C-alpha cells in the first residue's frame, strides 16, 4: 500500500521582526474578494503587545486609506464603501505606523459585476392575447434587505422580436418592490416575451421570459405518490395514482400506468385500470437489468366523459445496497491531536432510522475489524487506534461506505499536536435570532480567542473572547442575524508562542428567513361568498400575496419567485482566497490573513506524488489522464433558464410529451414573500424543491459578451458531492485558436489542478484574451479519479466600434456552355477595428432565394401599426405565389407551410386595425376616428390575393370595397383620408389609380363596381395631360394596362422618355432623391412592362439588375412599401422567366484582399436540387 505524500513547510513573514517590538503580534483578516457596490470590511486585531498600535490599511488600486488604533487583545473593523470597480489589480496593504512596525500585503480577487440580486415575479407563465401581465420586481441586497439606490431603475417589456412594448422608467421601490402591469393586444406577435430590469450605472440586470400563446387550461391534474428511493432487494416499486379536479374531486376515467427507463422509450411494464379515485400499483423490479439505476412511473388518465387526457411523471432511484451509511465529520473526536473515535450512521434511503440492534456495523481499518451496534439514533460508535493516511471501510449487511482518511487534509502535521483546535456545533439546527453554542476544544491551553463570522463575501462580526487560565475548552454562544443566512463561516484563532493557531467551520442555517408571514383562510366557501384572509406579518412589512387558479400551476409553474434560487444566490455570494493553497488560515472562510506570527502553508502543487484510493480499480487510477477525451454526448450543452417552459398548439386529442432533464443544475419553487426594512425578505411557507445534480460537476459563469482584445475572466466553480476529497483537473480547450492565454497564464496550457474537499466547493479562474470576434465555442472538461463532467457553451465576442454593413448584388444569366466573368469591389475605408472586417458570398438559383432564406427575418411576426404590419403580411402572399409557380416539391412544401403560418398571424393582426365601416387605419378603431383610404385599398388588395392560401372572410373584403366605393367623389377621384406614418407621396391621379388597383384584383369586383371603376377611369383620361410626375405616371400606367385603357400608350411613352441607364442597368427616378421611391417607381414599371408581353428578357433584365442592386442582405429593400412592391416585381419576373428545373451552373470565385492576397478560392454548384438553397461562404 502506498500513501499520498505531502510536502509542507513553515511560512515565516520576515518583515515583522523589529527588535524593539519582537513581543508584539498583530493579525489582519479581510475578504479575499473585493466587489463593486459592496462594503469591504477589514478586521484589525492586536494580540500580545507591550503598548497600543496604530495600523494603516489601504487598498492599492483605489483611493482608500484608513488608520485605526487598537489596544492589546482588542479588535476593530475598518470599513470601505466600494463603488464601481474596473477589471484591474487590487492589493490589500497593512502597515504599522506606531506601537508596532511592519509592512504586509496580499493580492485581492475582484468582482466588478457584483451588485444587488434582482428577481421578477409574474402572475402566470403563459398569457393569451388580450390579457394583462401583472408583475413585481423585487430587488434585495446581499443581506436580503430591500435594496436602496439613487441610480435610476427601468423596466422594459420586450416582445418576441425584441421590440420594446412598454417602458417603466425611474421606478420607485416600496420596500424593495415595484408593481406594474402591461396590457397585451388582441393580436400580438406570439412567442417568448421578456421583462428586463436594469439599474443604470450598475452591471446588475435581470431578465424573465414569459410566453404569449393560444392555450387551454388543463381540466385536472394527475398525481403519482410513492417512494423516490427504493432498494432492489425490496423487489417492488409501489405508488398511488389518481387524477383530481381543481375543485377537489377525483377524476373518473381510463388510467394507464407504465414503468419506464431512460435507456429505452418502450415501457418496461404496463397496467390499465378503470378508476374513480385512487389506484395503488406495484411493479416488480427484481429482474431489471443492473444497468438501470433510475425508473419513471408514468400515468396517462383519459377522462370518461370528454376523452381529455392528462399525464403525470414520478422518478424513482434504485439502489443495490439496502442502507445508506454516512459519517459526519463533526462526530470525529481527537485525543492528543489524533483521531480516535467516530460515529457511523445507518439509515434507510428514505431517511428513516434503522431499528436493527442485533446486526453489528463493521469497520475495516488498517487490517483490523471493529464492530459496534446501532443505538436509538441509528449510530454506531467506534474507537480505534489511528494509523495515518488509511481509508475507513464500513459494512452493514450488503451496504458499504469507503470514508476518506481522516487526517488527509485535517491533521497533516502530527508533530504540532498542541496546535489542534476542534469546533463542535452543539445544536442540530440553526435559525436566525435563536442563539446557538459552538464548543471550542484544544489539546493545549487556550489563552484567549478571536473569532470572525464571514458571510455574503464580507466580515459580519469580529470579537475578542477572554478565556480563564488553563482551559482547554470554551463554549462560544452566537446569536445569528439576517446577515449570516443561509451560510456563514466561523473563523477562530489566537497566537501563542509566536504560532498562529486557528480553526474554521461552516455554519449552515435552516432554510428559513427572519421575516415571517402567514395566512389563514376558510377551507371551504361558496361562489360569491365573502371570505376573510387572516394574515400574520411583521409591522411595517410589505406583503405580496399571489392567488391564481390552481390549473395555472398545472400548466406551467414558472411564474412565481424561485425561493431556492434566491437561497442559492445568497449562499454563492461568497469570498474566496486569491492564494492557491489547501492549508492556509482563512481558506475555508475565504479571507486573507496578514500576521507576523508563524503558520502552516500547504500549496496546491505540493501533493503530486503517488496516491492510492481504496474502492477504485488500480489500473483505472494509474491510467487516469485529465486530457483523455470525453464522448461528445456526455458534454452538457443545453442551459435553459427554466426546465419546463414550453407551450403547445394542440392539433389532436392525444399528444405525447417527453421531457429531458436539462443540462442546467438548478431548482424551481413556489412561494409567497414579504419584505421588511430590517428583517429583509421572508416567505409564506417552505418551498417544494426539484433538484437536478451530479456527484461531481462544474458551473461556468460567462459574461453576456466580451470585447475583442480585452481580458476575459472565466470563473469555473467545481462542486464535489463525493464523501471524499478529490484532486480535479480542469481543462479548457480552444476553439480554432479563438483564444490565447492572458498575461497571467504565461501562454501555458489551459489546465489547472485543484483539490476539492469532500462535499465541498472550490473554484478556478482562467484569464483569456479574445483574438477574433463572433460566437466562439468554450469547452471545459473536469475530471478526477471518481467521476467527470464536461460542458460546451458559446461566448459572443464583439469588435470595438460600431458595425457597418454593405451589400452588393450581381445577377448572372448565362446560356448553356457559356461562361461569364464579373468582379465586385468592396472599398473598406475609415477607422476600422483590426480583423473585424469580413465578406460573405451567397449564391442562389433565383432572385427570390435570398428572401426565402431569410424569410423569418424579412417576414417578421407582425407588430406596430396597420401600415407597418403590411410589410410583414403582404410579402408572405408574394412568396407563396412564387413558391406555387416554382413547383420544386420537397423544398417548396416546407417553405409554403412555414410561410402560411406567418400569413395567418399577419391576417389576424391586420384585423385589429379594422373599423366597423370596413376601412382600416394606422392603429384601429377607438384610437383613430377615420379610416385611411390608402391603407384600406392596400389591405383589401392583399386580402384578395391571400384568399387562395387562407380562408379570408368574404364579408371583410366586401365591406372594405364598399367603404372605398362610398368614398369616391362626384368627379370620379378618391380622397386621401386618415393618417400614415409615411405619406404615400402621390398626387390625386396617382392616388386614384392606387385605390382602383384593389377593384381590379378580382374580376368579380370589376363586374360589381363597373360604374365606380368607369367613373374613375374617365376622370384619369380627362386629366391625362396633367399627370407629369414619374411616381404618378408609373402607378397610372400600371392601372391603365390592367384596364386595357386606350390612354395607356400615351402614359407609357412619357415613362420611357424618363428612363435612366448605367452599367447595363435601367431605372426611373423622381426629382426628389429617394431610393425608396425609386424602387417603387421602377417596380411599377417592370410589372407593367412584364404584363404587356411585348418585351424580351434582354429588355427586362436591365431593370431587374437595378432592383437587385438596391436590395439589402436579407432579401428585402430599405423600407416598408418599397419592399412589398420590389418583391412583387421580382416575383412577376421569376414567374415569366425563371426555370429552375433546367438551371445548372458552376460558380468559381476567388476572394482577394486589397493587397491581392488570396483569402479564399472555391467552386459553388447550382442545379435543380440546390436552386432554392442560398449557398453561403462566410467570413473570408
UniProtKB/TrEMBL annotation:
Which SMART domains does the annotation name? Answer: A2M (SM01360), A2M_N_2 (SM01359), Thiol-ester_cl (SM01419)
Q: Does the keyword Transmembrane apply?
A: no
What Gene3D superfamilies does this protein's entry cite?
Answer: 1.50.10.20, 2.20.130.20, 2.60.120.1540, 2.60.40.1930, 2.60.40.1940, 2.60.40.2950, 6.20.50.160, Immunoglobulins
Q: Which GO terms describe its molecular function?
A: endopeptidase inhibitor activity
| Source species, domain of life | Eukaryota
Q: Which Pfam families has this protein been placed in?
A: A2M, A2M_BRD, MG2, MG3, TED_complement
Ranges for domain Alpha-2-macroglobulin bait region come to 421-555
User: Start and end of every Alpha-2-macroglobulin domain?
Assistant: 642-732
Example GO BP: immune system process
Q: Which InterPro entries match?
A: A2M/Complement_sys, A2M_N_BRD, Alpha-macroglob_thiol-ester_cl, Alpha-macroglobulin_TED, Ig-like_fold, Macroglobln_a2, MG2, MG3
UniProt keyword list: Glycoprotein, Immunity, Signal, Thioester bond
**Cellular component GO terms held in the UniProt record:** extracellular space
Instruction: Briefly state the protein's biological role.
Output: Binds covalently through a thioester bond to the pathogen surface resulting in pathogen clearance.
User: Subunit structure, briefly?
Assistant: Heterodimer of a TEP1-N chain and an TEP1-C chain non-covalently linked. Forms a complex composed of TEP1-N and TEP1-C heterodimer, LRIM1 and APL1C; the interaction stabilizes TEP1-N and TEP1-C heterodimer, prevents its binding to tissues while circulating in the hemolymph and protects the thioester bond from hydrolysis. Mature TEP1 and to a lesser extent full-length TEP1 interact with SPCLIP1; the interaction is induced by microbial infection.
User: Which PANTHER family has this protein been placed in?
Assistant: CD109 ANTIGEN (PTHR11412:SF136), MACROGLOBULIN / COMPLEMENT (PTHR11412)
Name of this chain's protein: TEP1-F
Amino acid at each position: 500500500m502506498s500513501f499520498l505524500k505531502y510536502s509542507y513547510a513553515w511560512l515565516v513573514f520576515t518583515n515583522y521582526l523589529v527588535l524593539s517590538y519582537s513581543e508584539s503580534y498583530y493579525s489582519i483578516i479581510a475578504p479575499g474578494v473585493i466587489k463593486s457596490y459592496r462594503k469591504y470590511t477589514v478586521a484589525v486585531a492586536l494580540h500580545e503587545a507591550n503598548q497600543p498600535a496604530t495600523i494603516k490599511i489601504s487598498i492599492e488600486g483605489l483611493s482608500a486609506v484608513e488608520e485605526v488604533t487598537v489596544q492589546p487583545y482588542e479588535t476593530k473593523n475598518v470599513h470601505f464603501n466600494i463603488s464601481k470597480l474596473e477589471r484591474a489589480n487590487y492589493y490589500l496593504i497593512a502597515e504599522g505606523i506606531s506601537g508596532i512596525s511592519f509592512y504586509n500585503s496580499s493580492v485581492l480577487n475582484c468582482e466588478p459585476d457584483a451588485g444587488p440580486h434582482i428577481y421578477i415575479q409574474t402572475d402566470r407563465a403563459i398569457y393569451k392575447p388580450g390579457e394583462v401581465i401583472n408583475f413585481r420586481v423585487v430587488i434585495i441586497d446581499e443581506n436580503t434587505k430591500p435594496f436602496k439606490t439613487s441610480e435610476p431603475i427601468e423596466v422594459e417589456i420586450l416582445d418576441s422580436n425584441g421590440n420594446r412594448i412598454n417602458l417603466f422608467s425611474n421606478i420607485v421601490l416600496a420596500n424593495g418592490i415595484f408593481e406594474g402591469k402591461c396590457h397585451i393586444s388582441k393580436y400580438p406577435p406570439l412567442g417568448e416575451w421578456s421583462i428586463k430590469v436594469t439599474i443604470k450605472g450598475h452591471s446588475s440586470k435581470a431578465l424573465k421570459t414569459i410566453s404569449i400563446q393560444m392555450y387551454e387550461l388543463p381540466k385536472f391534474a394527475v398525481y403519482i405518490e410513492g417512494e423516490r428511493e427504493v432498494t432492489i432487494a425490496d423487489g417492488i416499486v409501489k405508488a398511488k395514482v389518481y387524477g383530481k379536479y381543481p375543485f377537489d374531486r377525483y377524476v373518473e376515467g381510463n388510467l394507464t400506468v407504465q414503468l419506464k427507463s431512460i435507456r429505452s422509450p418502450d415501457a418496461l411494464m404496463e397496467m390499465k385500470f378503470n378508476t374513480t379515485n385512487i389506484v395503488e400499483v406495484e411493479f416488480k423490479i427484481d429482474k431489471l437489468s443492473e444497468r438501470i439505476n433510475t425508473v419513471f412511473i408514468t400515468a396517462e388518465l383519459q377522462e370518461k366523459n370528454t376523452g381529455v387526457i392528462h399525464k403525470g411523471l414520478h422518478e424513482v432511484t434504485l439502489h443495490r445496497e439496502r442502507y445508506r451509511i454516512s459519517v459526519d465529520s463533526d462526530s470525529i473526536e481527537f485525543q492528543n491531536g489524533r483521531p480516535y473515535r467516530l460515529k457511523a450512521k445507518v439509515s434507510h434511503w428514505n431517511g428513516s432510522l434503522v431499528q436493527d440492534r442485533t446486526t453489528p456495523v463493521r469497520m475495516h481499518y488498517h487490517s483490523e475489524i471493529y464492530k459496534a451496534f446501532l443505538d436509538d439514533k441509528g449510530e454506531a460508535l467506534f474507537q480505534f487506534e489511528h494509523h495515518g493516511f488509511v481509508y475507513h471501510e464500513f459494512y452493514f449487511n450488503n451496504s458499504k461506505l469507503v470514508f476518506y482518511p481522516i487526517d488527509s487534509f485535517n491533521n497533516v502535521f502530527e508533530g504540532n499536536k498542541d496546535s489542534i483546535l476542534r469546533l463542535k456545533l452543539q445544536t442540530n439546527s440553526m435559525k436566525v435570532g435563536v442563539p446557538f453554542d459552538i464548543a471550542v476544544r484544544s489539546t493545549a491551553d487556550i489563552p484567549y480567542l478571536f473569532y470572525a463570522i464571514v458571510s455574503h463575501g464580507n466580515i459580519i462580526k469580529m470579537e475578542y473572547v477572554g478565556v480563564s487560565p488553563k482551559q482547554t475548552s470554551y463554549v462560544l454562544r452566537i446569536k445569528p442575524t439576517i446577515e449570516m443566512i443561509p451560510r456563514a463561516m466561523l473563523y477562530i484563532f489566537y497566537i501563542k508562542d509566536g504560532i498562529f493557531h486557528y480553526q474554521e467551520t461552516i455554519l449552515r442555517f435552516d432554510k428559513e428567513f427572519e421575516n415571517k408571514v402567514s395566512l389563514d383562510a376558510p377551507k371551504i366557501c361558496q361562489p360569491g361568498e365573502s371570505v376573510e384572509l387572516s394574515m400574520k406579518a411583521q409591522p411595517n412589512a410589505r406583503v405580496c400575496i399571489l392567488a391564481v387558479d390552481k390549473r395555472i400551476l398545472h400548466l406551467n409553474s414558472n411564474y412565481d419567485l424561485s425561493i431556492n434560487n434566491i437561497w442559492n444566490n445568497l449562499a454563492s455570494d461568497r469570498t474566496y482566497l486569491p492564494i492557491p493553497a489547501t492549508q492556509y488560515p482563512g481558506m475555508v472562510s475565504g479571507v486573507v490573513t496578514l500576521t507576523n506570527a508563524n503558520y502552516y502553508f500547504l500549496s496546491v502543487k505540493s501533493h503530486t506524488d503517488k496516491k492510492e484510493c481504496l474502492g477504485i480499480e488500480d489500473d483505472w487510477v494509474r491510467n487516469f489522464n485529465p486530457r483523455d477525451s470525453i464522448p461528445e454526448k456526455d458534454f452538457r450543452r443545453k442551459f435553459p433558464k427554466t426546465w419546463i417552459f414550453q407551450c403547445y398548439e394542440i392539433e389532436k386529442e392525444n399528444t405525447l410529451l417527453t421531457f429531458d432533464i436539462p443540462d442546467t443544475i438548478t431548482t424551481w419553487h413556489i412561494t409567497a414573500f414579504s419584505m421588511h426594512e430590517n428583517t429583509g425578505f421572508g416567505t409564506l411557507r417552505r418551498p417544494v424543491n426539484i433538484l437536478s445534480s451530479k456527484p461531481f460537476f462544474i458551473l461556468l459563469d460567462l459574461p453576456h459578451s466580451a470585447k475583442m482584445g480585452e481580458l476575459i475572466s472565466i470563473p469555473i466553480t467545481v462542486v464535489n458531492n463525493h464523501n471524499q476529497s478529490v484532486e480535479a483537473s480542469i481543462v479548457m480547450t480552444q476553439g480554432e485558436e479563438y483564444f490565447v492565454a492572458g498575461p497571467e497564464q504565461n501562454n501555458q496550457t489551459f489546465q489547472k489542478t485543484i483539490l476539492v474537499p469532500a462535499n465541498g466547493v472550490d473554484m478556478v479562474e482562467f484569464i483569456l484574451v479574445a483574438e477574433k470576434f463572433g460566437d466562439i465555442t468554450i469547452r471545459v472538461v473536469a475530471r478526477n479519479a471518481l467521476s467527470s463532467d464536461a460542458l460546451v457553451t458559446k461566448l459572443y465576442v464583439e469588435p470595438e466600434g460600431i458595425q457597418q454593413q454593405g451589400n452588393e448584388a450581381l445577377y448572372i444569366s448565362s446560356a448553356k456552355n457559356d461562361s461569364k466573368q464579373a468582379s465586385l469591389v468592396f472599398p473598406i475605408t475609415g477607422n476600422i477595428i483590426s480583423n473585424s472586417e469580413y465578406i460573405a458570398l451567397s449564391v442562389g438559383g433565383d432572385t427570390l432565394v435570398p428572401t426565402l432564406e431569410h424569410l423569418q427575418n424579412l417576414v417578421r411576426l407582425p407588430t406596430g401599426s396597420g401600415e407597418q404590419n403590411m410589410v410583414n403580411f403582404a410579402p408572405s402572399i408574394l412568396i407563396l405565389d412564387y413558391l406555387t409557380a416554382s413547383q420544386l416539391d420537397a423544398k417548396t412544401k416546407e417553405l409554403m407551410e412555414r410561410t402560411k403560418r406567418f400569413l395567418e398571424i399577419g391576417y389576424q393582426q391586420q384585423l385589429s386595425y379594422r373599423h366597423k365601416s370596413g376601412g382600416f387605419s394606422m392603429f384601429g378603431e377607438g384610437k383613430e376616428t377615420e379610416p385611411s383610404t390608402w391603407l384600406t385599398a392596400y389591405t383589401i388588395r392583399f386580402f384578395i390575393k391571400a384568399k387562395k392560401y387562407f380562408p379570408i372572410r368574404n364579408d371583410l373584403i366586401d365591406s372594405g370595397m364598399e367603404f372605398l366605393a362610398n368614398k369616391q367623389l362626384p368627379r370620379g377621384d378618391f380622397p386621401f383620408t386618415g393618417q400614415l406614418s409615411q405619406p404615400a407621396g402621390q398626387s390625386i391621379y396617382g392616388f386614384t389609380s392606387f385605390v382602383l388597383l384593389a377593384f381590379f384584383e378580382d374580376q368579380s369586383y370589376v363586374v360589381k363596381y363597373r360604374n365606380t371603376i368607369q367613373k374613375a377611369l374617365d376622370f384619369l383620361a380627362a386629366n391625362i395631360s396633367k399627370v407629369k410626375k414619374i411616381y404618378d405616371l408609373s402607378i397610372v400606367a400600371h392601372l391603365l394596362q390592367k384596364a386595357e385603357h386606350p390612354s395607356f400608350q400615351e402614359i407609357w411613352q412619357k415613362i420611357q422618355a424618363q428612363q435612366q441607364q448605367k452599367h447595363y442597368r435601367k431605372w426611373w427616378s423622381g426629382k426628389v432623391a429617394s431610393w425608396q421611391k425609386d424602387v417603387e417607381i421602377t417596380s411599377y414599371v417592370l410589372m407593367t412592362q412584364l404584363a404587356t408581353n411585348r418585351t424580351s428578357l434582354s429588355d427586362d433584365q436591365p431593370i431587374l439588375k437595378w432592383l437587385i442592386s438596391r436590395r439589402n442582405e436579407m432579401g428585402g429593400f430599405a423600407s416598408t412599401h418599397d419592399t412589398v412592391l420590389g418583391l412583387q416585381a421580382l416575383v412577376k419576373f421569376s414567374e415569366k422567366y425563371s426555370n429552375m428545373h433546367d438551371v445548372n451552373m458552376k460558380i468559381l470565385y476567388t476572394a482577394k484582399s486589397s493587397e491581392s492576397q488570396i483569402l479564399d478560392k472555391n467552386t459553388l454548384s447550382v442545379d435543380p436540387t440546390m436552386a432554392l438553397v442560398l449557398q453561403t461562404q462566410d467570413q473570408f
